[in-house]
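Work package 3, deliverable 3.1, input record:
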Amino acid sequence: MTHATDHLDPSEARRRAYREQQAEIYQQLQTLLEPGENLLGFTRGRIAGGFQGKLFIGIESFFVPYVNVGLTDKRLILQHLTRELDKPSRNQPHSFPLPEVINIAFTEADAFHEIDELGRLSVQLLDEQSCRLRLDGAGACDDAKELVEVFNSLSTRHHTPQSPTQQLCKECQKVIDQPVKFCPYCGIKLAVEQPLQEAATSEETPDKPSETFTEAVVETAIEVAVVVETVAEVVVEVVEAIVEVPVEVPETVAETPEVVVETAQAEEAPHAEETPQAAESAPNPNDITSWDAYAQKVIAEQNALRPEGGERTI
Amino acid sequence: MSNTETISKERIYFPGIASSAFEHPLDRAALEALRRTPGLDRLLKMLSDWGMERFLRAAYTGDALRVSPRQCSRLYRDLREACAVLDVTEPELYITQNPHPHISFFGMHRHTIVITTAMVDLLSEEERLAVIGRELGHIKAEHMLYRTMALLIAEILANTSRTILLPGMILTEAMLYALLVWFRRSELTADRAGLLIAQDGNICVGALLKGVAGSQKLMDDLNIEEFVKQADVLDDLEEDILSLYYKFSLVRWQTHPFPTYRAREIKEWEKSEIYQKILRGEYARENTEAGKRVCTACAATISNTTFRFCPECGAPLDPVHVQHDIRRN
């Protein structure tokens, strides 16, 4: 009898096994999260760092050294596991708030590169303490690398000046720890600090009006062009109604930005040649008392003829 | 790594810096306790000046090479530079012929550094600066004085406790062990001083590495990162009780920690917030007037030595004036 897994590549089998373990780690860490806290990275390792390293984490590290490591947007969590690694230990998990974590680094532990499956994760804390973990397996190492990447992207946010007296020079990117008028490192005048929340909202406001003068001019030009095009269309219709022949629209008016004039173009050009004949059936100008009244009358007639019955406005 | 490097980078100076700015926390705790002991420090300084210091100075003046502006001037420039960075009174520097790469210092009243020729040959200029910086760190924190004080107190206590036989012996052993733990921590303080002078962790670790296994033929083939990783491997050995015991027995009577641990500590301190703050000019000062400058445009007083422009008016500031010559002891 053969099993489905008999033909599996060993590395593929390991990968599948680790996928199951990943799901398990994720599930176990989820139980520790507070509302609104997101798990951004995780791995599994063994507390290292010798006698002192274990003592730093706690006495329980000597008995239950394996931990799930979880990185959230607020803290780094170490969750002890039972010896069978199947469920979390009854020992309290440890967590370090992210602003207290200076650095998380991953290093390959196997100098001979015979098995690329041994790694180390070192967590450096603010109070000159550090915590070290040994990672077994390529999956755990890969996860740890991802966790470090996520931490590095988060750490820029956590380690930016947060104290009210601190500010960051936008020119030289140096942190200035005291209220100053000029950057003491590059000499540029520093702007008056806006409250962070206010600054963030002004940056993120959607559908904000045009910010530059050029953009404002272009927008106005487009609006004007649309109006001109509409007026031109009406005038053409009026004149057509008067003379009862299509009128060629001057290109300067017709080719306004983003506007396609629907009136007679090249196809109707031959009719333009017939204008002299058509002019014969045109109404006598003397019969028209007011051009405005006549134009309104033509528009009303055209609106009545439109299938959708919509009114046209200028 | 090579020996052909030259001192070219612009260093940050720390005028008026107090040793507490870079002391290892455990070293600081012991030092603060000893600093509170009244009168003993002055007595010891006096005794040292009359005794061992004069004897050794006579020995080295006769038997070694004293570095001066006219004798090994490059090495002398290194010493002056290191003293200026850490704001330390300039000690005497001697070179002795010795195949063992080593550097040490002595003295409580007048300080003296002794470097061996093997050490000079082995290190690059930057690394030499770092090792001289280490000894200056010891001098700045007055380790020699307080170590001697601690040993003296321990000796007195041991002599009295021997009268109670076994418990007395255990007490003496425990006291000596505790003192050696402190000595090892104080070496980490000295390493930090070296880093403050070299201002590059790789240079400090490189100097350590060469001290451990530096060979002229392997100079360009040394890997600092792998050396630092050895500290983790050493930690892993503590997983079994036998290795833990052997490790303990190896380090128990040592005055210096394992170089791999020192290397790792240097790299970690380089990343720390404390080190970064010192580089930004925020550090504990023993002399609050040191390094103060007055803006010529607006007359504002600037105490931070790393500032290049006046924070009040934006006018460029004069560079920090470091007094080299008047500080010689």
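Residues 1-8, 324-329 of chain B have pLDDT under 50 and may be disordered.
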